[in-house]
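2024-03-11 09:14:02 INFO worker-7 job=invfold-0412 stage=load source=structure_tokens
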């Protein structure tokens, strides 16, 4: 199946364009058609009426929603705001998209799982979030599914890149300022490059548009849509990620003193929100359906470091 741009006049409504994934999507989606990326003042995800009005005014062919409430620990004390942005706004997107025949691409998270199993999670595994953030993201997934809008949900994990706020940039900054950094070593996962996610999204939209020639987009998404895991390949821990990043940076700047990285347990670093011990997800369905394989985290790390 080849790729295709949107039909003439087709628009993509993009949320969260100032975020890590949204910023990359702003670039990768442009070749497909007109991208409308409203600011928070123009489209407030915490305000259902604002979301509804924007979609009604733009009448997009696609709604791409990386925008989210992502302050995992703060969500424990702000559950109403987390649910408004991560669930209610998505419910409205689904309702409005269904009414106009638009497709919805929504980004979700490994935090919908409790992380208690040893093997990587597949799309069909039971969800059991252990934090308000995870529960609000799961509620968003369910709201979109129940809307009957044509949709794709991409669950991802440990997102990072050269822009925005993320673990890698924080670690590299702290490693220059301190002698020692203590990093959790008993939470497993795979870092995911924001640009890899954005490129994958553009590829998937292009393939869906190619399949929609002579067909309704909603029918195509009825066949190809649903939940997909889209996480980096490979496996590490937060400690392993930090140690490898600092090691590679040390090679690039041999004269700069960097902190020593020490492994600690989750119990030694208590947080308001509980994290999954296992965030690994199998992204095989994405490869089978769309031919897209997510990058190994070690390969993407080298590319991101080269941009800094």
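2024-03-11 09:14:09 INFO worker-7 stage=emit residues=308
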């Amino acid at each position: 199946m080849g790729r295709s741009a949107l039909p003439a006049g087709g628009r993509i409504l993009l949320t969260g364009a100032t975020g890590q994934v949204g910023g990359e999507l702003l670039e990768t989606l442009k070749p497909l058609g007109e991208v409308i990326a409203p600011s928070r003042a123009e489209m407030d995800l915490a305000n259902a009426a604002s979301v509804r009005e924007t979609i009604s005014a733009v009448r997009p062919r696609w709604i791409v929603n990386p925008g989210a409430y992502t302050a995992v620990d703060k969500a424990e004390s702000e559950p109403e705001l987390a649910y408004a942005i991560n669930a209610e706004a998505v419910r409205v997107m689904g309702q409005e998209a269904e009414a106009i025949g638009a497709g919805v691409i929504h980004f979700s998270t490994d935090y919908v799982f409790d992380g208690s199993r040893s093997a990587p999670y597949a799309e069909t595994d039971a969800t059991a979030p252990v934090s308000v953030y995870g529960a609000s993201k799961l509620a968003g997934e369910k709201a979109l599914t129940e809307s009957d809008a044509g949709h794709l949900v991409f669950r991802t994990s440990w997102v990072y890149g050269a822009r925005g706020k993320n673990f890698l940039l924080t670690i590299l900054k702290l490693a220059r300022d301190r002698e020692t950094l203590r990093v959790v070593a008993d939470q497993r996962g795979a870092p995911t490059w924001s640009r890899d996610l954005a490129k994958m999204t553009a590829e998937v939209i292009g393939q869906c548009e190619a399949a929609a020639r002579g067909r309704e987009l909603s029918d195509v998404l009825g066949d190809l849509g649903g939940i997909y895991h889209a996480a980096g390949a490979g496996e590490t821990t937060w400690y392993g990620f930090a140690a490898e990043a600092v090691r590679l940076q040390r090679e690039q700047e041999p004269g700069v003193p960097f902190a020593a990285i020490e492994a600690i347990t989750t119990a030694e670093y208590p947080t308001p929100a509980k994290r999954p011990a296992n965030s690994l997800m199998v992204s095989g369905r994405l490869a089978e359906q769309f031919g897209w394989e997510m990058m190994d985290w070690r390969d993407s790390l080298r590319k991101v470091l080269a941009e800094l």
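2024-03-11 09:14:09 INFO worker-7 stage=report msg="The chain has a mean pLDDT of 97."
2024-03-11 09:14:10 INFO worker-7 job finished
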